Amino acid sequence: RVEVVKPLSVIGKNTVGSMQSGIFYGFVGQVKEIIWRMKKELGKNTKVIATGGQADLIAQEAAVIDRVDPFLTLTGLRLIYERNQ
């Protein structure tokens, strides 16, 4: 099992470091590309909020993310629950 962390270098010094670099920077690249394509359809002024366990880590490398709210999904679920009571 390989821990997801921001590596010190893009080029790993060993197998684990190389895997961490590939996982981290590969995912950052995916996020940037998806956001770029969505903004193309929705407009450049679209605000991007990252949420979830790795949101802070990814947002450090993805300037296309405007804000990080790690609890946005849970907040939304709570609001839905409250409105249906």
**For the record, what is the CATH homologous superfamily label?**
ATPase, nucleotide binding domain
Strand content: under 5%
User: What is the CATH level 1 assignment?
Assistant: Alpha Beta
Order of helices and strands: HEHEH
Could you estimate the helical fraction of the residues in percent?
Answer: 40-55%
Distance between the termini: 42 Å
Based on CA atoms alone, the radius of gyration comes out at 16 Å
Which spans of ≥5 residues are poorly predicted at pLDDT below 50? none
Class of secondary structure makeup? mainly alpha
Describe this entry's structure for a reader.
By secondary structure, this protein is mainly alpha-helical. It has one domain: Nucleotidyltransferase, domain 5. It is built from 3 helices and 2 strands. It has helices spanning 15-42, 55-59, 72-83, and strands at residues 49-50, 67-68. The protein has a two-stranded parallel sheet. Helix 2 links the parallel strand 1 (49-50) and strand 2. The longest helix has 28 residues, at 15-42. The chain is flat. The termini are far apart.
